Write the structure tokens for this entry.
Amino acid sequence: MAARKIIIDTDPGQDDAVAILLALASPAELDVLGITAVAGNVPLELTARNARMVCELAGKPETLVFAGCDRPLAHDLVTAEHVHGKTGLDGPDLPEPTMPLQDGDAVDFIIDTLRAQPEKTVTLCPLGPLTNIAAALQRAPDIAVRIQEIVLMGGAYFEVGNITPAAEFNIYVDPEAAEIVFKCGAPITVMPLDVTHKALVTTARNETFRTLGTPVGIAVAQMTDFFERFDREKYGSDGAPLHDPCVTAYLLQPDLFSGRFINVEIETRSDLTRGMTVADWWRVTDRAPNAMFMGDVDADGFFALLTERLARL
Ligand code: BDR
Ligand code: CA
């Protein structure tokens, strides 16, 4: 079977980096048409830089990387240096990238690619705030029906929030964008905190990455060493959640995940619950389902896949 064509929209972020590495390690299954950077964990200049550092770490400097929106659609940018460090990719000592950032705007790249490829053959993989994807849908509403699937990391139901008591970071940063995406009509699969908080890099799992002994294995171990300190201190959890790699793992092995096809709406107005994903998990409304909202992951299977693929780079 031909590799599935994907665009990774991202704000690296150590967990974004691992998601990108997993995709680039899997060319037989995933054809990464391009990586589009968005402002999120850190400002755009850094996410565009970090995305290229990760491609070079993977030995894939030919990957097309574009910079997109430098701020959310309607509000000021909120960043997460408290989790990811000043650069967004603190931990390993990676060289500055030498591969180019592509000319042109990430949003135009998303639009042009969806128009140029046969209908429903391109999957979008947002790993950060949904600004670039929403801007593309606003600028070119015709692309919505051309999207094969949107598989995104964002939101929460049972785990509620990680940046406010009610909201997950990616949705909170740009709820207006999230609302546009969740209403666009394309098939959507969501990896919320309910799933990603089960994909914890325990000490033993991180040692497995380190003992790969490769530059990639060692860098991944150093990245998770860095950002797990935050989760251990804050939640007392056994290691850091690998949020964003759930997206690329799903594309490779969907049976690792289970969830429900339900209605998900985005709160954009309330000061208290702004960015909340109001997920009708119990199907208590008659609102039409618009997303496959995952709830569980086979964590051992996920880490086995990740380790096996990272070893290929
Ligand atoms: C999400 O927010 C970011 O900090 C991570 O990269 C992930 O995409 C988790 O809430
Ligand atoms: Ca991210």
Q: What stands out?
A: DSSP finds twelve helices and twelve strands in the chain. The chain has one domain: 4-199+241-310. The chain has a mean pLDDT of 96.
